[in-house]
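Hi there,

I know you've been waiting on this one. I reran it after we fixed the sequence typo, so this is the corrected version. Both the input and the resulting structure follow.
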Amino acid sequence: MKTEIWVVTHKKYKEIEDDLHKTIQVGKSLGTDLGYVGDDTGDNISYKNPFYCELTGMYWLWKNYKCDIIGICHYRRFFLENTELITKDYIENILKDYDIIIPNNQLVPQNSVKEQYYCKHSAEDWEVCKQVVREKYPEYTEAFEWMENSRTINICNMLITRKNIYDSYCQWLFDILFEVEKRINIQDKDDYQKRVMGFLSERLLKVWILANKYKVKEQSMVIMGADGISGYVEGAELKRKLFKKLTASVVDSYINGKTPQLDKTIYELKCNTDLNINKSKENKKVLVWTWCCEGENNASKAVKKCIAGIKNNIDITKAELHVITLDNCMEYVNLSQIIIDKFNEGKIPEKILSQRIMMELLYRYGGLWIDSQCCVVDDRINAILEKDFYTIKSDRISWDDLVVKGRWNTDVVKGNAGFSLFGMVMESFDAYYSYTDTIIDQDMADYFIEIAYEDLSDVRECIDKCEYSNENMSYIISNGNKIFRCDVWKNILNDTYIFKLNNDNNMEKNIIGQTTYYGYLINNIYILRMDYLLYLHI
């Protein structure tokens, strides 16, 4: 069987030396010959590359090339099988049961894919594309509306499928795009926005899959550097070095046993307590913390469900929940004026602010932090309350987990007040933002934790002692749009009772109205007893 993945490129790159990956140069008619197979022979649209991006290569392969199974990836983005590049045998085995392999769903930060496109590109172009679909392929309209109201996309125009399916997709896709091109003004756009056909096609792929009810296998993807995977690793290493340099004085102080003296907060004064008292566990409820920026009343359905899950399952005789918001956070923490100002100026994203607040809450008061998009489904959560330290550990590691390596998860952390990890990370945030307001990584908390792990023996000991648990925490993120199956769900619950959700309300049912895993979790109330398998709605 002739199975090939074509790597689309417009520049020289470190080629994959195997029999699976081939290279095609796109826009070859417009630039220097790089020595690769080009998109400029036979039936081609090579000259349209500034507008169509990788699609000029896809068009050429559709019109001029024959094989049994064909794949498309990029010179920087490749499909992964676990932690290795995908193989020919793996692809052929997967396509016995599935129609198409695509990259994992990615969540957009806006309320919908349509809104995300409006924010980044032209709303007019989106509406033109939608109208063209309605006119030329009215049977695809429902799928288009489903896609635009969802919050997940499969980016990069990457896929692997049988050549006959690929050809039918290209026939449909280019018929739409050529018509869209006639109706919009590309020439007046800047160089980035001229890539409009590439941007639209990333969204149209999902429409085509939904409308044709293809069975899809989502696959991990790695972004590589100029030197291949090693280059990607080196990118993370550069960030490590920068973070370590900026936080060196903080680390040294903790190594030498010098911890910060914190001014009392409004909450501490109200409770007539302080950090030293909070270090004592006698006759004290565990404080459970979660962040809801806009407040519960204004939160999304998913966040409301998650907060309700915490309330319904924690033992109120042992714990008390505090929902931290933008309005009340300064009652509990004392943020520096630098942090406040940079947040107000939009230089610190909400996610990073919440991580900074989390670390101070845990350092001051101790307790359990649960992200407001984590859904607790049963009372096993109470076992965490008894632990001195807890975080979610997993041995399921991928190439995009170069820092954490499955050792911790900042979505769920339990610890005692005064623990060096929390204080060091808290102060590392402050040190970083006193130096710069450039965001080099949204997950900088993980880099700070890694530094603490390497340099502070008590931190390393606590993290290493944690057992693996909740390893299916991301199941809903990855599979939430799939049809709910009771038998699969029961197996998942054997290990996992905390699930990370997103806000994709459109994912509650699939395109034909069947309940998805996301829909089941968000809409059903169930009780799990000691065997964790007794349900009200199954």
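Quick highlight: The CA atoms of residues 107 and 152 lie 5 Å apart.

Best,
R. S.
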